[in-house]
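ok trying this again, last paste got cut off
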Amino acid sequence: MSSRNATRDDFAHVMDCMRKGLVNPTNYITHRVAFGEVADQFASWLDPQNGVVKAIVEL
């Protein structure tokens, strides 16, 4: 679900799985926000009750 602390091999494995259709990254996106709204929304992403898995900032 994240690339933090991932190795190059981890990244290659995930990309391979995505190419094979084994992983659909859009399934992990739980929140979307326009760039101009990030400051207003960011604190809410830190609250576990909001169920944020992956928040996408749209530019």
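PB: full thing came through this time. The chain is about 35% helix and 20% strand.
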